[in-house]
């Protein structure tokens, strides 16, 4: 039987897990943003020196074309890293939620089995209906979880494909210019 203390401890443990996972993700984003800001600042200084070193208009245009590619690649790389952090965080949280749901389902099933075992004679139809409803609810939840995972996978694949297409198009445009 589930004791109230165990239930409360599980909730507190999950809250700490969720908070720590969120803080880890925020920390990763902050470190990424700091590194990106430093890199952007250094790149800006380098680009400024290159632009100031241009001797005429043609040299200035050539320098600008040369500088556009790396900036776009760095932006796409930054986006990929943000997506990776988000996907990692989502994965950790989803795994923990699935484990908690599985544990809760097992505990509820035990409680229901004990209650149904003590059912009075002649209530077999009602017991069967309850068991069927529990199984249907579990199957429905499993289907929803599978669909949600598939949607997340399709979204991640779409973002990756769009990023790659953007990079290829920008690279081709840069070469053509």
What does this molecule look like?
By secondary structure, the chain is mostly helical. Helix content is 92%, strand content 0%. The protein is built from 3 helices and no strands. It has helices at 4-52, 57-117, 124-176. α1 (4-52) packs antiparallel against α2 and α2 (57-117) packs antiparallel against α3 (124-176). The relative contact order is 0.08. The mean pLDDT is 81.
> Taking all residues together, what is the mean pLDDT?
81
Q: What share of residues is helical?
A: over 70%
Radius of gyration: 28 Å
Helix-strand sequence: HHH
Key terms for this structure?
177 residues, mainly alpha, elongated
Write a brief structural summary.
This protein is an all-alpha fold. It has three helices and no strands.
Topology:
Layout: H1 4-52, H2 57-117, H3 124-176
């Amino acid at each position: 039987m589930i004791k109230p203390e165990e239930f409360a401890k599980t909730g507190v443990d999950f809250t700490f897990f969720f908070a720590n996972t969120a803080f880890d993700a925020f920390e990763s984003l902050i470190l990424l943003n700091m590194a990106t800001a430093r890199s952007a600042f250094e790149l800006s200084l380098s680009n400024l020196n290159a632009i100031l070193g241009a001797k005429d208009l043609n040299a200035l245009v050539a320098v600008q074309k040369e500088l556009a590619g790396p900036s776009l690649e760095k932006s796409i790389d930054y986006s990929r890293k943000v997506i990776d952090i988000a996907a990692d965080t989502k994965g950790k949280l989803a795994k923990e939620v699935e484990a908690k749901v599985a544990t809760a389902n097992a505990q509820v099933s035990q409680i229901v089995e004990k209650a149904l075992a003590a059912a009075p004679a002649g209530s077999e139809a009602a017991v069967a209906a309850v068991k069927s409803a529990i199984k249907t609810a579990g199957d429905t939840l499993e289907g929803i979880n599978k669909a949600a995972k598939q949607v997340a996978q399709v979204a991640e694949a779409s973002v990756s494909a769009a990023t790659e297409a953007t990079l290829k198009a920008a690279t081709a445009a840069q070469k053509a210019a």
